[in-house]
């Protein structure tokens, strides 16, 4: 990965492309969702000199995707500039992902008459107009119970929503692990631990080009192209000028007995925009994961990301792997208890174990930042997951690879461009109340 190799391979770069197949490419955050997907797509397209860096090896313990399960399905049409349209097909046909895709169906529920109901009805109309026959509108609690017998005892009066029989959930950690295995099989190089933990960019003498990455143990990785895909850590590592705000969301598990777990096999994934969500228990561990729905929490700290002339106050992820005694704020725990009492009253009062916070990074408009950094040629940003990118694992890296190859459509280039200060003009972002800071909510910290 020396600089002479750099110059040689740059001569072969096609017009509009940022690299050629023999270019040395470093992916920071390659143990996580967007980074490992990017490495997979590049390796499959014949790039022979790709190296992933991460704090932890795949599946990285810091990745938001290192989790029992995530919601995914075939109803996410039109998301991320339409890149979502192919995701479920990839989950169910690509051998790297197929074993981890589960299709018991999906319920997306809300309160009758709410803004959420209007939004879901529009989504339903759109899917029907596309000729979809796997979609049903659930007008009331009776309609819901027909699709979800496990909600027989649930207090869901006044709920309505959408049912999709295709999709449901994916075994997230196992899928990330499968990608890591495939990367090794395809010859992608790795560096983890202190030699894989980003400290700063290495710039050319004129300061205009990124020519590598320096890690916290002093290791320098020279490269023709660097991809920053460090999830919630991205705006802490490199100054993104306020485009990404890192926030955590939380989960807890209930340990089911084998009989209780068997009774929940095959249930459709249940998401409610006020109370939260859960899906089938883990097939062998019999753990039921529960998440509440809320605007996320920040962790405001003063830090100096690379490229910032002075320290700035931004939200900094607090890794659960590095702080294993952290649990979740009491108010979130109460929300999860409310979800259980409302939807699964037979499990009310059961211990909520394995409580954890995990970190994503939101853009104002909910679209990714996938572009070349305008300050430094040779640095590609692949971040801004906005809390719902795991379902995109099989395809997101293809979009980054398209950018690198100069093939990304103009529409997607515009959508995912560098855009500080632009905000959310079309109202596509998360919206809702601003997040609270972890310093304002008690109950989660046990190390002091
Ligand atoms: C509780 C919860 C539930 C969720 N549920 C869903 C869901 O149901 N469906 C869905 O689609 N999405 C869901 N998400 C969101 C999804 O998990 C994220 O959008 C996605 O995983 C983010 O991918 P990423 O690649 O941007 O970040 P990550 O997957 O977090 O990867 C970032 C990587 O950067 C690495 N890194 C950090 N610092 C450094 C450094 N200094 N040097 C090198 N590497 C570094 C990390 O170790 C990590 O591997 C959920 C998230 C949470 C928190």
UniProtKB/TrEMBL annotation:
Give the residue ranges for region: Disordered: 419-448
Q: What SUPFAM superfamilies does this protein map onto?
A: FAD/NAD(P)-binding domain
InterPro entries membership: FAD-dep_OxRdtase, FAD/NAD-bd_sf, MTOX, Rhodanese-like_dom
**What Gene Ontology molecular function terms does this protein carry?**
flavin adenine dinucleotide binding; saccharopine oxidase activity; sarcosine oxidase activity
> Is rRNA-binding among the key words of this record?
no
Write down the required cofactor(s).
FAD
Pfam families, per database record: DAO
Taking every annotated instance into account, which residue ranges of this chain make up the domain Rhodanese?
21-63
Key words of the record: FAD, Flavoprotein, Oxidoreductase
The family note in this entry says:
Belongs to the MSOX/MTOX family.
Query: What's this protein's name?
Result: Putative peroxisomal sarcosine oxidase
UniProt lineage: Eukaryota, Fungi, Dikarya, Basidiomycota, Agaricomycotina
């Amino acid at each position: 990965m020396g600089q002479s190799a750099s110059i040689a391979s740059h001569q072969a770069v096609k017009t509009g492309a940022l690299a050629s197949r023999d270019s040395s490419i470093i992916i920071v955050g390659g143990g996580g969702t967007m980074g490992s997907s990017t490495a997979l797509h590049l390796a499959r397209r014949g790039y022979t000199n790709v190296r992933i860096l991460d704090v932890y090896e795949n599946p990285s313990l810091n990745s938001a995707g290192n989790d029992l399960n995530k919601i995914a399905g075939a109803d996410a049409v039109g998301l991320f500039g339409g890149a979502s349209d192919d995701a479920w097909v990839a989950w169910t046909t690509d051998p790297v992902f197929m074993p981890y895709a589960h299709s018991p169906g999906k319920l997306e529920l809300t309160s009758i008459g709410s803004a959420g109901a209007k939004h879901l009805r529009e989504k339903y109309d759109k899917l029907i107009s596309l000729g979809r026959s796997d979609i049903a509108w659930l007008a009331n609690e009776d309609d819901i119970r027909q699709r979800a017998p496990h909600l027989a005892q649930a207090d869901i009066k006044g709920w309505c929503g959408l049912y999709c029989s295709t999709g449901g959930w994916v075994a997230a950690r196992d899928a990330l692990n499968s990608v890591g295995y495939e990367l090794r099989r395809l010859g992608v190089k790795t560096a983890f631990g202190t030699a894989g933990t980003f400290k700063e960019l290495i710039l050319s003498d004129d300061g205009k080009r990124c020519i590598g990455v320096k890690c916290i143990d002093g290791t320098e990785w020279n490269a023709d192209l660097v991809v920053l895909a460090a999830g919630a850590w991205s705006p802490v590592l490199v100054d993104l000028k306020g485009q990404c705000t890192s926030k955590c969301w939380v989960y807890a598990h209930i340990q089911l007995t084998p009989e209780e777990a068997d009774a929940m096999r095959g249930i459709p994934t249940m998401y409610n925009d006020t109370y939260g969500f859960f899906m089938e228990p883990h097939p062998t561990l019999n753990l039921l994961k529960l998440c509440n729905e809320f605007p996320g929490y920040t962790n405001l700290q003063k830090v100096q990301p690379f490229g910032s002339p002075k320290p700035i106050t931004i939200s900094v992820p607090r890794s659960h792997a590095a702080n294993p005694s952290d649990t979740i704020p009491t108010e979130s725990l109460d929300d999860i208890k409310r979800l259980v009492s409302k939807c699964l009253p037979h499990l009310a009062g059961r211990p909520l174990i394995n409580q954890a916070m995990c970190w994503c990074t939101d853009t104002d408009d909910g679209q990714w930042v996938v572009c070349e950094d305008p300050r430094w040629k040779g640095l590609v940003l692949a971040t801004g997951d906005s809390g719902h990118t795991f379902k995109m694992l099989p395809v997101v890296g293809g979009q980054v690879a398209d950018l690198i190859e100069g093939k990304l459509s103009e529409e997607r280039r515009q959508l995912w461009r560098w855009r500080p200060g632009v905000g959310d003009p079309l109202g596509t972002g998360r919206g809702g109340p601003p997040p609270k800071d972890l310093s304002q909510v008690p109950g989660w910290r046990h190390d002091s």
